[in-house]
Recover the amino acids of this structure.
């Protein structure tokens, strides 16, 4: 079934302060949407709110994945429904190996009794790690513990590939990647492009979008999508920065700090 994800009127607050002020995005299966925007404009908050981070209180709106509102679901249900987030700052979990974590995550999304076999899991993981040019020892390291910035990002892509999600949100997956790793990660994303998967890619740089061609580019300011366009919008932002957008829209302070 083709995937359809529609965020409508999403508002979210943290500690009583409204950060997201009404977000609307519609992602169809096969599409890649990029979100760009200056620092502190609500991009990561959007990702966290969609995934159900407990700190963010959704005050209104819906996020329908094939007709079902993920905002009404528990966090684990969202993952099971096919939502995936690669975080801007992936957490380290001491004592849990990367492969144990991945296998539990996969099995948590399956019915009891139809867990993935160990052999199949290992074969899959090894294959994906090879694609991502990861050293096999990373399977046995504790999750993200002591991983370099770029190693963490690559590991997030490994998780994405193994979990086969319907909606993939990547929050600054390109930050900290060297030039070769950027290409490897982009190849990983492109290999996952399909009619039943949609992508929301948060990035600051056109660089990533040279490798992953978005269908739509959205600019976020003041907790809202203030402008949308095609890949040419990202190119113009790269060349000219955000001042022209602010001028065009009469925005003085783009952050969510002001009312
Ligand atoms: N847990 C929190 N406590 C207090 N303020 C928060 C919290 N989370 C987010 N904010 C504030 O909300 C605003 C938006 O933050 P967010 O992380 O969504 O920005 P961003 O667009 O992802 O920025 P960047 O490009 O720098 O990653 C910021 O001003 C931030 O300080
Ligand atoms: Mg952010």
């Amino acid at each position: 079934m083709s995937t359809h994800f529609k965020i409508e009127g999403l508002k979210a607050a943290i500690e009583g302060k409204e950060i997201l002020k009404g977000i609307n995005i519609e992602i169809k299966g096969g599409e890649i949407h990029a979100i760009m925007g200056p620092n502190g404009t609500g991009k990561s908050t959007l990702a966290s709110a969609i995934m159900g981070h407990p700190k963010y209180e959704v005050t209104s709106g819906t996020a329908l994945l094939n007709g079902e509102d993920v905002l009404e679901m528990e966090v684990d249900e969202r993952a099971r429904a096919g939502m995936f987030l690669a975080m801007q700052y992936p957490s380290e979990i001491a004592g849990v190996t990367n492969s144990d974590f991945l296998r539990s995550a996969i099995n948590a999304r399956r019915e009891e009794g139809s867990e993935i076999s160990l052999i199949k899991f290992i074969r899959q993981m090894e294959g994906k790690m090879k694609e991502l040019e990861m050293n096999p020892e990373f399977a046995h390291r504790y999750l993200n513990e002591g991983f370099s910035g770029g190693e963490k990002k690559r590991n997030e892509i490994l998780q994405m590939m193994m979990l086969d999600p319907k909606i993939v949100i990547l929050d600054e997956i390109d930050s900290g990647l060297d030039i070769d790793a950027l290409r490897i990660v982009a190849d990983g994303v492109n290999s996952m492009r399909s009619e039943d998967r949609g992508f929301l890619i948060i990035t600051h740089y056109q660089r990533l979008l040279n490798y992953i061609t978005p269908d739509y580019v959205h600019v976020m300011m003041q907790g809202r999508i203030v402008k949308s366009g095609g890949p040419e919008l990202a190119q113009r932002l790269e060349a000219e920065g955000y001042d022209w957008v602010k001028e065009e829209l009469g925005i003085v302070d783009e952050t969510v700090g002001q009312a």
Remarks:
- The chain has a mean pLDDT of 95.
- The longest helix spans residues 149-163.
- The longest strand covers residues 17-28.
- The CA atoms of residues 234 and 240 lie 10 Å apart.
